[in-house]
Amino acid sequence: MSDEIPMGPGAEFDAIRQMLERWGPRAVGIGDDAAVMHVARGDSLVVSVDTFVEGRHFLRGWLTPREIGFRAVAAALSDIAAMAARPTGVLIALNLPEYWNESLIEIADGIGEMVDLAQTCIRGGNLSDGTELSVTTTVLGEAFAPLARRGARAGDRVYVTGRFGGPGAATALLYAGESAGDFRDRFARPVPRLAEAVWLAERGASAAIDVSDGLLADVGHLAVASGVDISMDATRVPLMDGVEIDAALRSGEEYELVVTSSELDVAAFERRFAIPLTEIGHVTDSRDGCVHVSGARVANVRGYDHLSR
């Protein structure tokens, strides 16, 4: 790479050189103390970070090393998708125990695959030893008018992308020692809705959030941030085959989008992206930050909790 900065000797730098060889032109300007980026005039820099930890988010044997790299970056990119930002780079901090050393290149290949799909690049990071595998991804993006959680207005309709329940069903089966079956891809290879979010923002979306804590919980987060109530019709939530609605409402790490708008062209969206866009409710003029499902107020909207045991 013409902009690569030479690195000195040592096992850490040897491992980095191995990854750089796999990533090729997908890695830009690696080797200095920090990455330098130029943001288009008038745009905002949008930044988020996400960590994927062995024993917390997955158990060894659930995913291939390539899937671990892919999924870690996909989860982080979903955060800037929710802001309707275009990714301009990722930073990867890899905590690599000795017993994972032989899998380094496969993890790097998964990272590279997701970077390709997102049409972005790797701009730097960190590599260290540790007691469990973790991949921390910092994502950088830009947007002229980032789409926030706080923009929902009374009278807006509430829409979701995709179908729900797959990741929750997959992890339940895996914890039980069973095959995740048809649900496995939704857990192992989630796709951040980057282009979809930009399309929705350009066509009048007023607020958005990605579904990482569960649909019910994240609709609740959006309601609180916007200072509104949201009424959902459970019968309209699109489900994966074989999933019950109660499980789908609390299934975490879906990485689909919830968006609000006065109205969206559902048919045009589905023609463009070949995934469902479904109206599941509306925003009311109450300012309590509450969620109602099929007419009943939900007292506990908690979903997937990263700190629960």
Keywords:
309 residues; alpha+beta; 60s Ribosomal Protein L30, Chain: A; Phosphoribosyl-aminoimidazole Synthetase, Chain A, domain 2; 2 domains; four-stranded mixed β-sheet; 9 helices; disordered C terminus
Description:
The protein is an alpha+beta fold and 309 residues long. The chain is built from nine helices and eleven strands. The chain has two domains: 11-143, 60s Ribosomal Protein L30, Chain: A (2-Layer Sandwich); 149-297, Phosphoribosyl-aminoimidazole Synthetase, Chain A, domain 2, CATH 3.90.650. The protein has helices spanning 11-23, 65-81, 104-118, 166-175, 184-188, 194-202, 215-226, 245-250, 266-273, and strands at residues 44-53, 86-95, 122-128, 134-143, 157-161, 207-210, 229-232, 257-261, 277-284, 291-293, 296-297. The strands form two sheets. A seven-stranded mixed beta sheet has the order 6-8-5-9-7-10-11. Strands 1-4-2-3 form a four-stranded mixed beta sheet.
Spatial strand order of the main sheet: 6-8-5-9-7-10-11
The level-1 CATH class of the largest domain: Alpha Beta
Would you give the CATH topology of the largest domain?
Answer: Phosphoribosyl-aminoimidazole Synthetase, Chain A, domain 2
Task: Write the element-wise H/E pattern from the N-terminal end onward.
Answer: HEHEHEEEHHHEHEHEHEEE
CATH architecture of the largest domain: Alpha-Beta Complex
- Approximately how much beta-strand content do the residues carry? 15-25%
Number of strand elements? 11
Please indicate the count of domains.
2
| Radius of gyration over C-alpha positions, nearest whole angstrom | 20 Å
Helix fraction by DSSP (H/I, runs of at least 4)? 25-40%
Largest sheet: 7 strands, mixed
Number of helices: 9
- Low-confidence stretches are 303-309
Structural class: alpha+beta
Gap from first CA to last CA = 45 Å
